Amino acid sequence: MRGPIQPDNFAPFPKNPLISKFFIQLGRVDELGSGILNVNKYLPVYAHGKKPQFIEGNRFRMIMPLDEALMAEFKVEGAIEGATKGVKEKLVALLTAIVANEGKRVPDYKEATGLTGSSTERYIKQLGEAGFIEFRGDATQTGGYYLTKKMKVKLK
Which of 155, 153, 61, 53 lies closest to 100 in space, CA to CA? Predict the structure, then answer.
């Protein structure tokens, strides 16, 4: 079988039955095909209704469309070690606001996130130190905060 797999109408089969039996005996596999079913069941919760794609061919491919806010959360989790869960949530909210509307200044992001001005400035400094965002332009008039090139690559 080649092409897209429809989760509601597919019959799982092992590409290598010997290896499949080995992992089943070890207890490392629940049931053949359960991954496709579980991803379809749980991904919409994390990706706000988006659906994954499973494509069978010489190589099995799975495409999982993830929400930008979720991706930002994963990136913040790994990069801001030692921050409390509450601080990470605020950093994610701020990073999400910047992703959605680059080039703005502290008052704009303060309003978008509901954070205080000093908290917004503090979290912007942390995101900058982590290499997620940078300030571009004139500091007095036209400048604003943007995702770094490195961060854009990570989010894609």
Answer: 155
